[in-house]
Amino acid sequence: MTFDKLSPLSLYVHIPFCRSKCGYCDFNSYGGLEELIPTYIDALSNELRMRALGNRQSVATIYFGGGTPSLLDTTHIRQVIDTCRNFFKIEKNVEITLEANPGTITYQWLASLRSLGFNRLSLGFQSLDDKELRLLGRIHSANQAVEAYSWARQAGFENINIDLIYGLPYQSFGQWQEILNRTLRLAPEHFSLYPLTLDETTPLGHAVESGSIPAPDPDVAAEMYQYAEECLAGVGYEHYELSNWSLPGNACRHNITYWENRSYLGLGAGAHSFANGYRIANIDRPEEYISNLEAGKLPQA
Length: 301
Known about the structure:
Elements: E1 9-15, E2 17-18, E3 30-31, H1 37-52, E4 58-66, H2 74-87, E5 89-100, H3 107-115, E6 120-126, H4 130-136, H5 142-154, E7 160-166, H6 173-184, E8 190-195, H7 203-210, H8 218-234, E9 238-241, E10 244-246, H9 253-259, E11 264-267, E12 272-275, E13 278-281, H10 286-294
Parallel strand pairs: 1-4, 1-11, 2-3, 4-5, 5-6, 6-7, 7-8
Antiparallel strand pairs: 8-10, 9-10, 12-13
């Protein structure tokens, strides 16, 4: 795949590892494979080198998604960032984002991340209700989420996104109001708000399909979305994508790359790339991804 050298590129780095898989998640992520992380990072570095083709392409945004990128030791994150800098031309005003699970981070880890040049953090709260977090299979509590946000501020992050999920089984409209308003008091620069999407292949989806857990009410979920629209607009957030709101000047530049069909290079197991009207995808399984790159082959599906 070739990219227009006159246009800056976005890099997406997929980290498919999780401490445990959330009950609603159908992303390309895996629990219990953390022992693969060192060899996976080596494979990622090799893929970066092979995809770069020696062209020193300009890069405007870098986004570490998952999975749970915050499971990585900062030495592994440094290895990937250094490889990016060695083989691509990183713009001075680059936006570098990492998704973090509040149950996996410390203040020291966040301070190290900030020192590596990361200037945007996406915290996966999903809820601020402990019962809802247990239903979703999250490994953190509501208090841990708030504490992680405080640490991020102390570590110097000035552009923080918070993810929340609405339209959950058992969730009332009033509960959603309380969660959103409590999160608003933290004053993050960005919100990503997603309706719960159930896939019957996931444990939560199967539980709803079997009737052991009630299905969410789509009409109530629509009211929750409308409330979020009005509530966030009332305190200055701009609704710039279907599920994304930001304070002025804080829209996620990496997200906009996708929405405007600009070129991006996806790296890692299951990552997708797009350029010149063409899309390619990598092999999903981390073990296969690693073995392909150890053999000197690009890991395309």
